[in-house]
């Protein structure tokens, strides 16, 4: 199966609630050591967008959008 072409990113609107990391089936989201920023490893993402649907402030988008 070919991977979809998606590149999700977390924008500055992120409130660091952690909702996205809890719903990611691929464990492709990581919090920084300082605890104040998040990163999505797009190469590990399966493009299901569960993170974006769960985000209360719509802080996850596709970099290509």
TrEMBL record:
The keyword Isomerase does not apply. The keyword Iron applies. Signal peptide: none annotated. Pfam families: Fer4_9. Keywords: Iron, Iron-sulfur, Metal-binding. Residues 6-34, 36-65 form the 4Fe-4S ferredoxin-type domain. This is 4Fe-4S binding protein. It comes from Carboxylicivirga mesophila.
């Amino acid at each position: 199966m070919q991977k979809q072409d998606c590149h999700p990113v977390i924008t500055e609107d992120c409130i660091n609630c952690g909702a996205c990391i809890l719903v990611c089936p691929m464990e492709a989201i990581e919090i920084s050591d300082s605890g104040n920023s998040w990163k999505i490893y797009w190469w590990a993402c399966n493009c299901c967008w569960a993170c974006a649907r769960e985000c209360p402030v719509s802080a996850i988008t596709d970099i290509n959008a």
